[in-house]
Design brief:
Length: about 350
């Protein structure tokens, strides 16, 4: 990352939230996104949506690989060069190689982050240390006629195929944790998917750390069925089979395999068509109690959502109304209807 983070406070408190800090998400983040002046030019990349809106529900753990591994502020800019699958991290002008120092730091830092009990991480887009994907990797060339000490030259345009050195180590160490870049959070669907997965990871953490029992897993799966269905029917079915045969599995292996399948499934996009199918599935729980007019209203709202005429929050709000009106216990326990705080307005986009 061309920004870096001094070893900073372990968290940044949000504006207002229930006092029980166990309810708050704990998210690692590139330090410059919090407004810390750690970038190569002495500046920052403060993201007000992250600190202002998401900060109401999250405690942040800042990380800046450059500063924490010994680079000053300000400093010479960095870039990735060589093979995109195994690039080197060098300064742009002096060509000082920081690859091994950065990797050694990253391996140490991710082990320290185990104790932070993170629910996910927000990386800085395009950073050579912290970019998640599509980081520029420059060709590496050292022609014989370049005088000693004059630096290297680069041939051709860079390939946008790299991953920041710290980000790669982090994602290898925590493959199931939700990760995202701040730039991609501008996309409403990517933003909702990421934040939804953060809340699922937080709900998983407490029973898992206490030792997930088979009964606990059945309860967790039951309450997340429709949420999972909105992302992947295949994962919904395969995890259902896994839970149905829970008694034949070692509890630790069962929990690991379940979480792996769950997070793989939730990473898949929840499309309009998938949501519409789940909404119609939910209607089945009211087939004996809804009046003809209520059934017609629900079907019309789902159809309008399917045609992108109204956002998802409209049919979800109507369903929640019927859940309360008719006391439907199964749907009342489904996180699909309330996966994250309504104040975030994550389902308000068409």
């Amino acid at each position: 990352m061309e920004e870096s983070s001094r070893p900073a406070p372990t968290g940044v408190a949000g504006a207002s939230h229930p006092a029980d800090t166990d309810d708050r998400l704990r998210v690692g983040i590139s330090s410059c996104l919090l407004g810390n002046k750690v970038r190569f030019d002495g500046g920052h990349k403060h993201d007000p949506y992250i600190t202002g809106t998401l900060g109401q529900y999250m405690d942040f753990v800042p990380v800046c690989p450059e500063v924490e591994c010994g680079m000053p502020v300000p400093r010479e800019a960095l870039r990735l060069v060589g093979d995109p699958a195994n690039p080197r991290l060098v300064t742009v002008k002096g060509y000082e190689d920081w690859t091994e120092r950065m990797r050694a730091f990253a391996l140490r830092r991710v082990e320290q982050l185990v104790d932070e009990r993170l629910d996910g991480f927000i990386f800085k887009r395009a950073s050579p240390s912290s970019g998640m994907e599509r980081v520029k990797v420059y060709a590496d060339h050292d022609p014989p006629d370049v005088p000693e000490g004059a630096g290297r030259v680069n041939l051709g345009p860079p390939q946008e195929k790299g991953v920041g050195l710290f980000a790669r180590v982090f994602m290898d160490r925590f493959p199931l944790l939700p990760t995202e870049e701040e730039g991609r959070l501008n996309d409403p669907r990517l933003r909702e998917n990421f934040i939804e997965r953060l809340f699922v990871m937080r709900r998983w953490r407490a029973p898992a750390e206490a030792g997930m029992t088979r009964g606990g897993l059945v309860d967790f799966h039951t309450r997340h069925k429709l949420l999972l269905m909105s992302h992947s029917v295949e994962h919904y079915r395969s995890l259902g089979r896994l839970v149905a045969h829970a008694a034949s599995h070692d509890p630790a292996d069962l929990a690991r395999d379940y979480l792996t399948g769950l997070m793989e499934g939730l990473r898949l996009p929840a499309t309009t068509a998938k949501h519409a199918n789940v909404l119609q599935h939910c209607m089945g729980y009211f087939k004996r109690v809804l009046t003809p007019d209520e059934k017609m209203e629900m079907l019309e709202v789902i159809q309008r959502y399917r045609k992108l005429q109204v956002p998802l929050v409209v049919p979800i709000t109507l369903l929640n109304h019927y859940v309360r009106k008719y006391g439907e216990p199964y749907l009342a326990g489904q996180f699909y209807l309330n996966p994250h705080p309504v104040e975030l307005k994550l389902r308000n986009h068409a």
